[in-house]
Amino acid sequence: MFEMICRQAAGVMEQTMQKIDVVIVGAGPYGLSAAAHLRAIQGLEVVVFGEPMSFWEEQMPANMLLRSPWAGSHLSDPSGSLTLDHYRRSLGLNFSAPVPLPDFISYGRWFQRQAVPNLDRRTVVMIAAATGGFAVTLSDGTTLLAGRVVVATGIGSFAWYPEPFRGLPTQLVSHTSTHRDLGIFAGRRVAVIGGGQSALESGALLHEAGADVQVLVRSPEVRFLHQKKWMHNWPIKQLLFAPPDVGPALISHLVAHPDLFRLLPRATQDRLGPRSIRPAGAAWLKPRLEEVQLVCGRHAVGASALGDRLRLTLDDGSEEVVDHALLGTGYRIDVRKHAFLSPELLSSLRMVDGYPQLDEGFQASVPGLHFLGAPAAWSFGPLMRFVAGAGYTAHKLARAVARDFIPAPAGARQGGTAVIGACAASAPSLSQPSAVSSVGGSPEAAAATDSAPTWSDPPGVLITGADYRALGAARSLGRQGVPVAMLRKHDHLLGSFSRYVQRVYSLPRAEGNLNEEYLSFLIGLAERENLKGWLLLPSDDDMVGLIAHYHDELSRYFLLSVPDWEQLRWACDKRLLSQLATRLEIDQPRTFCPASRREVQELECSFPVVIKPALHDSLNNRLQRQGGARPAQSALPAGRNLSVDKAWRADDRASLLEAYDRACGQMPADMVMIQELVPGGGESQFSYAALCRQGETLASLTAQRLRQFPMDFGRLSTYVETVDAPLVARAAEKLLRGLEYTGLIEVEFKLDYRDGRFKLIDANPRVWGWHTLGARAGVDFPLLLWRLLKGDPVPGILGRPGVAWMYPVLDIPVALKEILHGRLSLRDYLHPRKPVEMAVFVSDDPIPGLLELPLLVYSRLVRRLAFAHKAH
């Protein structure tokens, strides 16, 4: 019968079989995560076979808790939005770590409904080689032709039975994976074999169910995780352990990054792998085992039936008679135990001790056959044994498949079953790259320029800037396999050292007309470096203004992420923003736009006030091409620049006039604004960050900017926390609808404690300093922008509250001042109660973090020399 199925699967039926690009066998965390990432590849057909989360429901005790930390228990989708946090928040649940198994199963099925709605619950019974791929036979007799097969069936087939227990009846010996309800052992004497999490937790559950339990542990003592508390508190924990928390101190960081682990010598991998997963129990198990008999330093060397009971012979010669032996002995991988793989396929696999040898795309020695999860541990390290490895695996698999995938012509597919792929959303109202006659070339070339890029040959992103904001965007996109190029300035180099940046270009120093020179440089770069159609993503106001003002010219070469100036000016020009807020009845400080010094003298206002530029200095420069005059820079007061300082405080009329005169020496008088000062420090600063399409919010979060540098009128935030502030969100969404804005934007508010109102302060239509906090909160803004501009659907995502972001290099001096003034305690600073995302240093891209301080010193030196040169 077996041979007949194989012959049928590989036979002449290939002409009539339905062809599917990728078949995924298994619908657990790895299979579902892989499907979610593969479905994002335009034109790729992906079908998942299996019952969702079946192993977790059918082969684990119902009352168990996950040992993995919260951060290591998320499934993965391309936007990073379908997290445990999103699930818990969207359904109003309140469970936490350690995650109860029923909640994790429900989360996995919720993820499946969101990311893989057309899952096929039939079982795959045979996979055999066939011309053009693999013949996949299902439980109902249907045979499909698959270009690739991804095996993600988990560890259910690999339960390990030590030699003494083999061949004994199941009423005397069983594996932990065969039980859902351990209550069946109530009142019976049970020996649990093993010293890892499964054995120890089974011992606790058996005791709680009323069984007489004895746990036999081979090692001299039972190991529990996290026994040294000081090693697991912030900030030491972040230095010693990666978030998945797999492996001992420091080694954890290698384990969490399989790309690095794979580079180690084989002997080192073989030593560190077992060391990272040695038997141990979670710390929270310890009190539950206080009344359970733990026998350490002993193991069974023999087992035999004694009537309806079981006699165990231990290594010291003693004997124990029990009603049942429950094996918590784990799993040993051997893919030859997969009954659905044909003998021909198995014989073609290169294996080491039952593990298939895999390339960087998880592909085995049989082209097109991939293995995910625990079978990948020999090739990628111990992270593959945990849910935490699903994200890395799915990303690498999707990247490899996308690289080799060639979409079939329209109508070329056979069969009528559903194509499981994301439907493209309507393109946003932003400029698409187009060919123009000035570029030259044939009509065919022009058509190629106009056509949307494909995943098989994807365009990349050119980020204009290399500071920490640009670095965060590069990491966000690079982690998902998006090619990233970076345009660095002479004094901003940080991002160019990221492992996720593939190309680096230097922006030339402009000698004449800055606008025209930069425009010419960008156009030349697109033609010379084959960057036509790439997304142009600005990270600073200089380039936002340039792109907006030269929108028509640049849109012929790049996909642009900001609107043209006619739309953008309503967000950039504080005068227009104030007008719009007034029309929309959005609270804001009293604002004045005086036309002359005389109006300032006669201004009826309450002090203190602030004086600020209506536009950023770089945007003022852009307006010169429209005829605006700029005062001579000789009037600039030494060390003070209003555009850099953002605002100057004036406590009386005399100081207001002095500040106004200084400001008019730096910019046209009609660019100077005066605004009521809203009292309060960082605790009053709030921001609403969003990705919008034509004014409608697609993804958002609200944050409290608790510390900034400098603290009075911060040029940048240094410590930010996500919060739940519905009044801020409501006001910001009203403003964004009024702007009809498309793209990324941050809207700033300040809480006025005098009347309890959130007042509009500013808007930043670009990536903002702390945008990387979004990914930690479930809203990866640069990646979502990329998906939006590609025409992919972007689900509505609301960032979760309770996570933080820090820019330590500048936050430390700010925090010290706050501590000295009694506004912040040293204990609260050293032990934050929220998970913290660092602005620059991250474990998967450490070089920029290591170079940050030297580059900061270099940047300051370059600016001082440039200023001294101008002064002379």
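^ that was protein a. below is b, sequence first then the tokens
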Amino acid sequence: MNRSRRRNGRIWRVLAVLAVLWAGCTTSAVPATTPESTTPPAAASGPARLREAALAEPDNPAAHLVLAILAARSDPDAALVHLAELERRGWDIPPGDLFPALVDRADYQAWASRVQARAPRVSSSVVYATIPDPALIPEGIAADPDAGTLYVGSITQRKIVRIHPDGVTTDFVPAGSDGLGPVLGMHVDSARGLLWAASNSAESSPDTAPASVTGSGVFAFDLATGALRHQVRLGAGDDHLLNDLVVSADGQVFVTDSAAGAVYRLPPGAAALQPLVPPGTLHAPNGVALDEDHGRLLVAHVFGISAVEIDTGEVRALAAPEGVVTGGIDGLSLAESSLIGIQNAFGEGRVVRFDLDQAHDRIVAAHVLEAGSPHLHIPTTGAFMAGRWYYIANSHLDALGDDGALIDGASVRDPVILSLPLRPEHARLTAEERRLVAEVDARADAAVAMLERVVDINSGTMNLAGVREVGHVFAEAFERIGFETEWIAQQRQGRAGHLFARRRGASGKRVLLIGHLDTVFEADSEFQRFERLSDDRARGPGVIDIKGGDVAILHALAALDAIGALDDATITVALLGDEESPGGPASRDALIQAARASDVALGFECGLGPNAATIARRGLSEWRLEVQAKPGHSSGIFSDTAGAGAVYEAARVLADFYDALSDQPNLTVNAGLILGGTTIEHDRAHDRGVGVGKSNVIPGAAVVTGDLRALSDQQRERAKATMREIAARSLPQAAATLHFDDGYPSMAPTAGNRRLLFELDEVARALGLGPVRVIDPGRRGAADISFVAPHVPAALAGLGVDGDGWHTPAETIALDSLRVSTQRAAVLLYRLTRAQ
């Protein structure tokens, strides 16, 4: 293996666990008598120097872990002595695969089990975005708060992608552009319109051409265009790993070099990186945060966090309370006198906040913000934007081989960007909100009684009288709490109508609450009554879809009214009578008009699990494929003169649909009905029919119907274009025609929806529910909020009750979820109607 490949292999291990620690896991430990390396300091970061440094810090927990790693293979007993010392000091980071040489020892297994039991399991994050590219292998992330945009760098593909405010991901810097190698740390310089990125030597990867330039360097790209504006490189012959960087207000760039143990600065306009911290000073410096008010950098490394004076380069360790582990940090950020970092080098990755004293001279407390989440798989770096921290949850750096490319067969998932508040523990209810929650709890039995009452009224969409009766029950209840009600009849659409309830005021945001009165269970269904199964379970038609959500709306508003919190609020409730089988586009006119007069829309469909919500729902279009072919005797099939027949042509189109579209994220194309034969009769109104044919006759006609679901209008139109192109490629003597009928629009994941999700998340934390779980839009069907979403600045859906079996005779509610959903809705409404 050539030297370049050896160096790259070492670099990837630095990224995964830090190269020097990895060496201790997989090679013989270095005895205490090993002399200091005679290589230059830039390359002298091997196990011998590391061991010497660890021995010099007997009170540092990170030092004991390093010594245990270095001893594990050649002296397991010595390693376990250090692990025992860690346990005595309260070590609580599960080791993961740090100790392969010890995994078969019972004493090590017992130690690891005790640490696992002690480890915090904390969930403070919500999913912000998913990048549909499992082979991206991201490491660095940067935020542009002015544009609401995130940038994520790829190691394997040597490119930078941009996550737009609506969650859509596009390439910002294409793969390998301008000699860009694997991308690590990044930082947005908003004042100068630049994105700075650290990049390092690379060989070819499977998806890109060989790198035209080698050597580590920093690159500056134009935020508006992605064009390269500036680059500065270190020498290709030296061993460098430029890792993380920050930019000061005056335009200076500061970058860590994990391989050389250095920190460099790049003054504005300079042509070369200048050492601020000389090579060999720090052990694998990684994350860096800028403390401009105090004139220093805060740099993470193997043993902890050090302060570096910008004027002099002086380095001193940042003191921490006994037992607080500050080593092994990757990404590091500073905000509001706190550092937030990702600790991923000492075992299972986690997010930790370190609170600083007033002078930022020492750490005074540490708080684990995220640990044990199924999303976490070698989390790496993060960036602040609009008061929240956004970070890469699953880098999959362990899937890289020695050449920096993905290992064949490695299991990798789409990268997930998580978001959390800096101080999630500060989410608390006010005194008035506690009154509100108590009011909801006091009404819990009445809410269940109301649910039983309306479930026992059959309101299948086509049972018009039943839909009107349920509407009447809700109208009376809304009028009792001061709402004006209106019944909007829908005779022309062949449906019962809709109930609207309104209160008008002048304060806060104008809110639209959406439910529906109808169910899928018609009057002739055998499933008709509410049935209590246990103290917390009940079954009934529409109990979760959506009458439980309707009751949550009503009782949240009733609780708000009871404490006088609705007096100046503007709230519209829309309970539609034909959600399960809409009467046509005109039946949504009143809903869309209400949306245009609102600032926020909330949908109360059932929520696919407790404390969940969704910021996006896919739109729905129906399609119909009609095929005509030359009929004839089957003996001639496949010949140019007889052709392939209508059934083969339909099958070809469907197979090509699958091949072209089945791997598109959030896109589905379903074929629900197929008819073919010599003659066919298709009842389009009820989507059923009859096909007549014989085994010895080439069929002359076929029809296929199905649906198309997409997350955005753009995705839907791209899919339609692909489907039309496929249908046009007919087999001999056949012709296929494709028709589309757009039904529900999509509810796109907009920036406004995400901000509203964060508000709901704060409410959920304050109620003690933990972070809100964001529902995958691929798991949701169409809903009325999709008609509303394009017309309001912000919308959320899935705020209803929890249960299972909707649309089946096993439809069941978790009854306590009615109380919880009502609490969550009431507090969110309280805050929204007081917000500007």
